[in-house]
Each structure stands twice: as structure tokens, then as C-alpha cells.
């Protein structure tokens, strides 16, 4: 069947895509129909706008593209790609724009293709189910299909690709108001989304953007590298210009129950400030700003950032409806776009666009007049974000903080160097204790946390907890555990425990029956028998509490007996020194009820709680064996009554946690220059009960 092209070509010209010059003006009335998660996802899937109409009128099947190769009215003297087919009276013409273009189509019995004189062009043709790709001359006709096949077989033109200068790009500086907005190119066949820079190395976007594989088959989104190569362009309001940064996406971390995914970049973005999360929930009728790289009413791939305003609709625990302010639209390609309000003069991220009815958008059926959208909430993502940052490879030192709670519960939070801290979560089950946790300690080894926990049944358990593999889909396992008081190595009556790592070895000190006992796990996972420290270091009165630390590769111990502190050392050869009275070296104190120790280089930092915790004192045992006199820590954190104190050397600091009589948990650090960090009160909102024990360690990813 032959198709006359003249009238149809004129009709198709109305579908030719124009460059974006501003927000599109559309006629459909803004809908008040609730949107919710029922609307189509706002992902640019590359579907050719108006393809059904073009097929009906011209017999040309246009499937998918990136918006840079579009059907056009043939115009002599105009740079166009022209296709000749045996069954057509006239040529089929396409306009190519930009530095690259892709179009999937079907033109049966194609025999020739002519370049546009500007772009390097390739054409892919199938013949009897076999595909071949040819380079197209810029200035001459290139034979394809039966015209080039030795057997004269018909050819089906299925793909056109272009590369080239696309004109001289201009360099445009990032708009500070929207510089955190990114465009994500998912593969090279037209699938795109918008994204939001929330960390120098993380972009928050819609999970649905990545729900395909390289064959465009729908798949679930899992943690790990994206199934299709993805590039983020950040800090550029015009994608056809230069400037900004283009960085590869190397890993995805999907949110468990929202259309959200965090995309981790290969390298951090520089010179652009990520947007902060809002701390206020969205409210019905609230005004929000947005910015996206999606379609408009007239442009398939406008290439420029558009910034419509929007109004919040119904709000749920996970998302909210959204109405763009006319003439603004939310179309394909706007999935992942930020929604923000201004708080204290700065943008605060409230939500991420997920879905839209897309009424008035190019390619949407004219019978669809609804323009409402749906967004996933971002104001409550802080804990998830901190956990993702903590789990990212190469993210450096982290602090693990443990605190006790009601009914023997044990809670853990992770603190990053910038002070960001996760919510506390209950990890009691990971310790394998029976009847809850009675006492505990922790030590970091490489990227793992080793926890030693005493159950209310008297058994002491060791468990290894690895960071949650949020950026990978495998590696999730049950924590490894061992009973340190099993029948082959019994120790009864334990009341308190301390732990520290030295090299690949884990040292544990337990107080049982008023005496200190030591055991060690070597790098192969084998444990030594319990050894009575008094048998090698000398007799002390009944010991009530003790702490151990790695100081210059040696194990140093401070024990409290009869309200006084005593110190000894286990050297690298495994030999123990005798107990020394700390008061004789650092000065007298009141009755000591709590103690902690941390090694900083070859120096030992020791802090004690005195007179039922109403005073907190600090001293240093230097490498030359001299002692700094005890100093009152009230000048560091003010007047308080401490119920426990813990210390660990993390990232070139001696960090401390202190539980207080008013059921709070304090954090601070003594820095390398001997000054103290500003104290922070850790958020205990997800915990219950009385908090009178804490532990602290560091690990590195």
C-alpha cells in the first residue's frame, strides 16, 4: 500500500518538537481529582509523542527516542536526515539536534538514507531478522536494505543514531536557586528523570526511574549498580550548554516502601550546595517550588530546566498530592524533581515528584485533562540518609554508640564526623542474650562492630555486626555470635565487661566475683581461655568496674577497687605489669564509681566518676609514664550527675559518651589540639526506659 506524504507531512509538522523557551501555556483546567499513587509515573520513557496518530496518517512507526531526532516536514536546503523507501512516493525527513540523538522506528522497504550535513549518522536495518548498522554519508545517499543487500532482500529501518556538535554550546553558570537539581540519563535511548542533590555524592530521585534493564524489560529496583549505565548532569540549567558536572551513577539504594531511590555518584559534586531536608511536614494548601527537566506542552526534550510553582493537596504519612500552578505542568521526565519551600532563607526539601496525570503535556492524549501530581515525602528521610552515608564505601570513620533501655534492651546509633546521627534502633536480638542485656561493651575492627553483651541469665555473648549493606543487594546475614561462657570456658557471676581491639585481636575484660578476667580472640576467630588478671598483676580489693584500651599497641587496664583506681599494662608479648595506684600519680579523688580509658597514640586518657557521679575527672598517662593531674570536666560539659562514662579514640579524637541522672546521653570529644568539641545531646526518642549505661567505638568503611 502506498501512502501519499504531502498532506500527512503537513499534519506531522504540528508534532515537530520545538525548543523550550519558557513555561508552557496550556488550556486544560487544573484538576482537583485526587492523584495519589494511581497516576502514571512521571518518568521519561522515550515514547514518541503522537506516535499513534503518525502511524494512522503516514504508516510510519515511531517507537522511542531521546527527543533529538524528530519527524519533520521535508524542506529542501534545510539540514535534515532523509529516508527513501520503496513503498513511499516521497522521502521521510527528520531533524537532528544536540550532540547526540537516538530514534527507534520502523520504515519498511527502506532503500536509502541521506545525512543532514552536520551530524555523524548511523542507520540500523534488519533483513530476515538479521541486523546491520551502516555509516551514513553526510552529503550523499547511502544505500540500505535491498539496495545494498547482495540478495536484494527487503530491509526494515529500525534505528537512527546521531552524534555531532549540535552547534557551539554556551557555558552557563549554575543558578544558585536550583543548582541542586540534576538530570539523570538512564541509558542512551531516551529514558530520563530529574534528581535532587542531597549530599555531595548522593542524588535522591524516583525509584521508578530505574525499573528497567538494558532490554527495557520492567524489573524490580534492587540495591547495587544500576542495570543501565546512568549519568547525572548537575549544575546546568541548559543541557545543551556546557558547565556544571557530569558524573556516573555507581550504585542505587532503594527506599523500602516509597517510590524513592538514592543514587550514589562516582565522585563528589564540587561547588554546589546540596539541598537540606525540611524538618516540617507538608501541609494541605502549602505553596512549594519545583524544578524539572521533563517535557512541556510543546517540547519533548526541552533541555532546559523549568520551574513551575505548585500547591500541596492531601497529605498522607508517605506522600502528598500536588497541583501545579497554571501554566506550569508536571510531565514525563519530572520524576525525581525536588519540591521545596524556603526556611530561614534557604531551600528545604519537602518532597520528590513521583507521578502525574500529565494532562496538557506533549504526547498525552487530549482527553486527559487532569494535571495533578503525586510526590513522596522527604521531610522524614533524615535517618535513612544518614544510614546511607554511613554505609557508603569510602565514607571514613563512624562512631557506634550503644545505650541500654527498658527490659534489658540494647540500642545502637551511628554518628558521622559532621555530627549527623541515626536514630537509635533496638539490636538486642543481634546479641543473642537471654532475658535482655545486663551489661555490654563494643570494639571496632575494620568495618565491623564487635559487641560483648551479658545476658540476664549470666551468659556472655560475642557478636559481630557488619554495617547494613544498603548499597548492595547481597551480604545481608545473621550476626555471628559466640558464647564466651560456654561449658568449655565457664565464668560465672559476671557483673561488668569491657572490650577493645588491638590489631586483628579482640580483647575482653570481665569482672566476676570481684575479680578481673581476660580473654582474647585472635585474627582467626579463636578465643583464649579466661585468665585471672590478679594472678599475674597482683591482688586488689574487690573490683567493682574496669575499662581497657589500646595504647600504642599495648593493653592498658584501669580497675576500680575500694573506690580507688588502679592501673596495669599487658605488653605486646602478653606479659602483665603490677597494679599501680592512680591517685599516687594523678592526685587524690573522692570515691570512684565509674571509669573509662582510651588510647591516643602512646598516651592513655582516663576519666572517672566520683562521689556517685556528681564529679567527673580526667587525667592523661603519657608515653613517658608521667601523669597529668586530675582535672574537673565540668568546664567541658557543665554541671551534671553522670551514671556512666565511656571513651574511644575515633578519627584522631578521644570521644566520650556520658549517661546522666536525668536520663540523657551526652557526646563530646577531645580533639588533637587538646580543645574540646561542642557537646551534643543524642536523640533518644526511639528508646524506652532508664539509660544508665553506654558504650562507644569507632569503625571505618
What can you tell me about this protein's structure?
There is one protein chain. By secondary structure, this protein is mainly beta. Among the domains are: 6-24 and 46-163, Gamma-B Crystallin, domain 1 (Sandwich), CATH 2.60.20.30; 385-700, 6 Propeller (Neuraminidase). 6% of the residues lie in helices and 42% in strands. It is built from seven helices and 47 strands. Strands 11-12-13-16-15-14 form a six-stranded antiparallel β-barrel. The longest helix has 10 residues, at 382-391. The protein is elongated, with a radius of gyration of 33 Å.
Q: How would you write the strand order of the largest sheet?
A: 11-12-13-16-15-14
Helix content: under 10%
CA-atom Rg in angstroms: 33 Å
How would you sum up the major sheet? 6 strands, antiparallel, barrel
CATH superfamily of one domain: Fucose-specific lectin
What's the tally of helices? 7
Q: What portion of the residues fall into strands of 2 or more residues? A: 35-45%
Low-confidence stretches: 1-33
- Write down the CATH class of one domain: Mainly Beta
User: How many strands appear in the DSSP assignment?
Assistant: 47
- Gap between N and C termini, in Å? 65 Å
Mean pLDDT: 91
Could you say what the CATH topology of one domain is called? Neuraminidase
Content-based structural category = mainly beta
Please give the CATH architecture of one domain: 6 Propeller
What general form does the structure show? elongated
Amino acid at each position: 500500500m502506498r501512502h501519499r506524504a504531502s498532506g500527512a507531512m503537513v499534519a506531522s509538522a504540528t508534532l515537530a518538537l520545538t525548543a523550550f523557551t519558557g513555561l508552557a501555556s496550556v488550556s486544560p483546567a487544573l484538576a482537583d481529582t485526587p492523584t495519589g499513587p494511581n497516576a502514571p509515573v512521571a518518568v521519561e520513557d522515550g515514547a514518541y509523542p503522537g506516535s499513534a496518530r503518525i502511524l494512522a496518517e503516514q504508516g510510519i512507526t515511531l517507537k522511542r527516542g531521546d527527543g533529538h531526532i524528530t519527524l519533520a516536514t521535508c524542506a529542501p536546503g534545510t539540514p535534515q536526515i532523509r529516508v527513501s523507501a520503496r513503498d513511499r512516493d516521497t522521502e521521510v525527513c527528520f531533524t537532528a539536534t544536540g550532540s547526540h540523538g537516538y530514534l527507534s522506528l520502523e520504515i519498511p522497504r527502506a532503500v536509502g538514507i541521506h545525512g543532514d550535513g552536520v551530524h555523524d549518522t548511523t542507520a540500523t536495518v534488519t533483513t530476515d531478522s538479521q541486523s546491520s548498522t551502516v555509516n551514513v554519508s553526510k552529503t550523499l545517499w547511502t544505500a540500505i536494505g535491498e539496495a545494498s543487500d547482495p540478495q536484494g532482500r527487503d530491509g526494515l529501518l529500525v534505528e537512527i543514531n546521531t552524534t555531532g556538535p549540535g552547534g557551539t554550546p554556551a557555558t552557563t553558570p549554575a543558578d544558585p536557586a536550583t543548582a541542586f537539581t540534576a538530570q539523570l540519563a538512564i541509558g542512551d535511548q531516551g529514558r530520563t528523570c530529574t534528581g535532587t542533590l542531597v549530599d555531595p555524592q548522593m542524588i535522591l530521585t524516583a525509584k521508578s526511574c530505574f525499573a528497567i534493564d538494558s532490554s527495557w524489560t520492567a524489573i524490580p529496583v534492587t540495591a547495587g549498580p544500576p542495570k543501565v549505565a546512568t549519568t547525572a548532569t548537575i549544575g546546568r540549567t541548559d543541557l545543551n550548554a556546557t558547565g556544571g558536572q557530569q558524573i556516573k551513577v555507581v550504585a542505587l539504594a532503594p527506599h523500602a516502601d516509597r517510590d524513592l531511590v538514592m543514587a550514589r555518584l562516582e565522585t563528589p559534586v564540587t561547588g554546589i550546595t546540596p539541598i537540606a531536608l525540611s524538618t516540617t511536614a507538608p501541609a494541605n494548601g502549602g505553596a512549594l517550588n519545583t524544578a524539572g527537566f521533563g517535557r512541556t506542552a510543546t517540547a519533548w526534550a526541552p533541555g532546559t530546566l523549568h520551574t513551575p510553582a505548585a500547591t500541596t493537596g492531601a497529605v498522607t504519612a508517605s506522600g502528598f498530592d500536588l497541583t501545579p500552578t497554571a501554566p506550569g505542568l508536571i510531565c514525563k521526565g519530572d520524576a525525581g524533581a525536588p519540591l521545596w519551600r524556603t526556611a530561614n532563607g534557604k531551600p528545604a526539601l519537602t518532597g520528590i515528584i513521583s507521578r502525574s496525570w500529565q494532562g496538557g503535556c506533549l504526547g498525552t492524549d487530549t482527553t486527559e485533562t487532569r494535571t495533578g501530581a503525586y510526590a513522596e515525602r522527604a521531610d522524614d528521610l533524615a535517618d535513612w540518609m544518614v544510614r546511607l552515608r554511613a554505609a557508603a564505601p569510602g565514607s571514613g570513620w563512624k562512631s557506634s554508640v550503644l545505650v541500654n533501655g527498658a527490659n534489658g534492651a540494647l540500642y545502637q546509633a551511628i554518628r558521622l564526623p559532621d555530627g549527623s546521627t541515626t536514630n537509635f534502633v533496638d539490636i538486642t536480638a543481634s546479641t543473642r542474650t537471654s532475658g535482655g542485656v545486663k551489661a555490654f561493651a563494643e570494639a571496632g575492627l575494620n568495618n565491623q562492630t564487635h559487641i560483648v553483651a551479658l545476658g540476664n541469665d549470666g551468659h556472655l555473648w560475642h557478636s559481630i555486626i557488619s554495617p547494613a549493606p544498603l548499597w548492595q543487594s547481597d551480604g545481608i546475614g545473621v550476626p555471628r555470635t559466640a558464647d564466651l561462657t560456654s561449658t568449655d570456658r565457664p565464668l560465672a557471676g559476671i557483673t561488668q565487661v569491657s572490650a577493645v581491639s588491638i590489631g586483628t585481636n579482640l580483647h575482653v575484660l570481665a569482672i566476676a566475683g570481684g575479680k578481673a578476667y581476660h580473654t582474647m580472640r585472635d585474627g582467626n576467630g579463636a578465643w583464649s581461655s579466661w585468665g585471672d588478671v590478679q594472678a599475674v598483676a597482683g591482688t586488689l580489693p574487690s573490683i567493682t568496674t574496669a575499662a581497657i584500651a589500646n595504647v600504642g599497641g599495648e593493653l592498658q587496664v584501669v580497675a576500680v577497687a575500694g573506690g580507688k583506681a588502679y592501673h596495669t599494662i599487658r605488653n605486646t608479648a602478653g606479659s602483665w605489669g603490677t597494679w599501680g595506684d592512680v591517685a599516687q600519680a594523678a592526685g587524690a579523688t573522692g570515691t570512684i564509681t565509674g571509669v573509662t580509658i582510651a588510647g591516643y597514640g602512646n598516651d592513655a586518657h582516663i576519666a572517672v566518676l566520683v562521689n556517685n557521679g556528681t564529679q567527673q575527672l580526667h587525667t592523661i598517662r603519657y608515653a613517658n609514664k608521667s601523669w597529668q593531674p586530675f582535672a574537673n570536666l565540668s568546664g567541658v560539659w557543665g554541671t551534671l550527675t553522670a551514671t556512666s562514662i565511656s571513651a574511644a579514640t575515633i578519627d584522631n579524637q578521644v570521644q566520650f559518651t556520658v549517661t546522666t541522672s536525668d536520663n540523657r546521653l551526652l557526646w563530646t570529644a577531645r580533639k588533637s589540639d587538646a580543645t574540646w568539641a561542642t557537646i551534643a545531646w543524642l536523640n533518644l526518642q526511639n528508646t524506652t526506659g532508664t539509660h544508665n549505661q553506654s558504650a562507644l567505638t569507632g569503625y571505618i568503611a
